[in-house]
Inverse folding.
């Protein structure tokens, strides 16, 4: 589906009925990466998957795009769809956006799920290499970046040809301009550790134990920093935990999220036993 928001074409998928469950993709992916979640959740939830600004079918804007701006885009989309308080699931860069959303729009949140992500800003040297990467994408296009990232996204045991090819095919359609804006935006994102203690929303932190891009210690930082947050680490999964281990990921998410909004099947069981 597509709609115009703030003058920009915005791509998204919406399936199912129930409380909103919103998935935010990471870099350099788009909403298609969540396809294994749509099928699992659309019977009990209103599953909403935006393409973040500059990715997939969503139009970009020149220059850095801040995580706060991306969070506003998500908020605008939810308002446009009339979707009430949502459970927001953010993977990696999507997690940076989810943290910005939680800070700016706590009233629009039912729950927060942070997947393979972290709270801290880029260290100065990391920000420098991100900007250098943006300049290289501008000069050479995206092929080098996709190749480098595809290998690191997966746990070593999942790096077979089929998985690597499919990950690359998810990344390939993204346009250089969108990737450049996001790289520059990530390089200047603020340190979310400063507001973790102010988040009063049920939170689940999930990560693959073999994440080669964001060390799992970062998941611990998030879980310790957000009051009451729960932490789950999944085996045989890397950075793309939801794609690599969809069954375990979906189970973990469902068990946790059902406490916030019981599933249709649980409601039926409750009705039958009443
Ligand atoms: C992502 O998967 O979104 C990126 O690895 C995040 C990052 O580069 O910091």
């Amino acid at each position: 589906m597509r709609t115009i928001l703030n003058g920009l074409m915005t791509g998204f998928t919406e399936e199912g009925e129930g409380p909103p469950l919103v998935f935010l993709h990471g870099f350099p992916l788009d909403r298609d990466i969540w396809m294994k979640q749509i099928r699992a959740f659309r019977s009990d939830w209103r599953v909403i998957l935006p393409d973040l600004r500059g990715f997939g079918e969503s139009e970009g804007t020149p220059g850095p795009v801040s995580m706060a701006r991306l969070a506003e885009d998500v908020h605008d989309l939810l308002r446009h769809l009339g979707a009430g308080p949502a459970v927001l699931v953010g993977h990696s860069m999507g997690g940076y956006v989810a943290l910005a959303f939680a800070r700016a729009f706590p009233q629009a949140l039912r729950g927060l799920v942070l997947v393979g992500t972290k709270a801290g800003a880029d260290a100065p040297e990391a920000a420098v290499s991100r900007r250098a990467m943006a300049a290289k994408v501008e000069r050479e296009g995206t092929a080098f970046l996709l190749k480098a990232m595809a290998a690191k996204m997966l746990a070593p045991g999942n790096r077979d040809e089929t998985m690597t090819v499919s990950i690359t095919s998810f990344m390939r359609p993204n346009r250089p301009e969108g990737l450049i804006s996001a790289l520059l935006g990530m390089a200047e994102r603020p340190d979310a550790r400063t507001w973790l203690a102010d988040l009063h929303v049920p939170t689940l932190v999930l990560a693959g134990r073999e994440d080669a891009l964001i060390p799992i210690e970062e998941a611990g930082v998030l879980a310790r920093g957000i009051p009451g947050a729960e932490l789950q680490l999944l085996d045989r999964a890397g950075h793309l935990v939801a794609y690599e281990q969809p069954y375990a990921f979906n189970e973990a998410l469902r068990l946790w999220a059902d406490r916030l909004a019981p599933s249709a099947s649980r409601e039926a069981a409750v009705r039958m036993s009443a």
Q: What stands out?
A: The longest strand covers residues 8-15. The chain is about 45% helix and 15% strand.
